[in-house]
Amino acid sequence: MGFRHSESMPALSPVDDDSSGDERMTDGDPHPHVAPPPAPNVRDAHCFSSCVDLNSMCSSNTSDDESSVVINSSPHRRASAMSPHLGLKKVLVTGGAGFIGSSVAMHLLARGDSVVIVDEMNDYYDVRIKENNLRRLREMCPPEHHLVVYVGDICDEEFMLSVFEAERPRWVCHMAARAGVRPSIQDPFVYIHSNIRGTTHLMELSHKFGIENFVFASSSSVYGGSKSTFFSEDECVDNPVSPYAASKKACELLAYTYHHLYRLNVTGLRFFTVYGPRGRPDMAPFKFIDRVSRGLELQQFGDGSSSRDYTYIDDIVDGIVRAIDRPYPYQVFNLGKGSGTSLREFISIVEKHVGRDAIVNVLPDQPGDVPYTCADVSKAYDLLGYSATVSFDEGIRRTVRWYEDEYVKNICVEPETQANGMGRAASFAEIRSVVAA
Ligand SMILES: NC(=O)c1ccc[n+]([C@@H]2O[C@H](COP(=O)([O-])OP(=O)(O)OC[C@H]3O[C@@H](n4cnc5c(N)ncnc54)[C@H](O)[C@@H]3O)[C@@H](O)[C@H]2O)c1
């Protein structure tokens, strides 16, 4: 691993802009401008102001933000792209033992930042997977770099206050949450606890401790009730269809409130199905690779033509780090690949890389399934310089390699044995009784 600290490059205007659209680097910046490839689905209309007026929010903090540069005078692109903060950082990464949090922590450590992890190590999936993530982080962390791990609940006020007092982080990357749509229907309270209460508590501490930038994980699930195919941040997402989606939408709303009341810089990132090495075992990419490798049956709902946006972990980490480095006053971004993959194609790519035919059980469409959903990532491209670079084929190839070389040899926890095999969240009541015992 060898990332330069400035790997999070500045946001650049799309290639169809005129040259005045380039973001200028801060004086003395040693790094050349590198134009990313065109965003996969840059749309004509960039109206960043549907449910809440993001343009006005973006400009609300410009008086003390001289690094912001207006990238285009077009009425659609009045938001400013910000030059990245390039200095070394101490970043609090919540959920840092989980899939995405540990991957971000690895990237931050590799580029020289200090990382403070808080994770309660819950058993939503097998804890050995999280322990393995932490072990890898400890192993790769050079002795001169700073990695501290705290095990505890972000909702525990005394505990979190002591972490902030002891560590004094200046940047927060909040990835801890209860994830998963279906388990949230079975047990909504644990989602209200970790996601809504936990995020509010962290923002409360963040404004009190003068955090420079609070970046948190939202989810594409907030679009659950939408009829669109390309999901854009412009859409009103007031109709979440699961407690998980509602909890993420609630975090976005509360984040705006903390920005409004205390000028806390907050960015919410709506991730679209993230997969890759060390991926969550309750998610389709891991399950498909695992089941095809072990000769177990897969369930295919519908004729296989439905399509989803799957995002490789390295692209997501790149987007998260770009967001951390740019303390926008308040923004919400989609982070996806920006193009869809059909279920049929998905299965055949897994078969190709595993080298085995899938046993597929075709079932009727599930109620509410939509044929094609995908992220519109043009806003993240404009304001963060984000553009996914790993194709689904290449991402699955790398994930299969990890599964065979690392997972099967070192971890080898069969997903069916975890929780109830669905990745069911333990209920909050269960956790409390375990703690009390
Ligand atoms: N993986 C995806 O495809 C995806 C998609 C959309 C959004 N997200 C969001 O991204 C974030 C990271 O997801 P992930 O896939 O890495 O999940 P993960 O389950 O692997 O990681 C989350 C971590 O948070 C920890 N955690 C949960 N509640 C906590 C609490 N109250 N206190 C302390 N730690 C707690 C868990 O122990 C876990 O290690 C989550 O917020 C999730 O909702 C993920």
From TrEMBL:
InterPro entries hit by this protein: NAD(P)-bd_dom, NAD(P)-bd_dom_sf
Basic and acidic residues composition-biased segments: 21-32
Superkingdom, natural source: Eukaryota
Keywords attached to this entry: NAD
UniProt-annotated stretches for the region Disordered: 1-40
UniProt KW NAD keyword: yes
Domain NAD(P)-binding: 92-399
One Pfam assignment: GDP_Man_Dehyd
Family the entry assigns: Belongs to the NAD(P)-dependent epimerase/dehydratase family.
Name of protein: NAD(P)-binding domain-containing protein
Organism annotation: Cyclostephanos tholiformis
Biological classification of the source: Eukaryota, Sar, Stramenopiles, Ochrophyta, Bacillariophyta
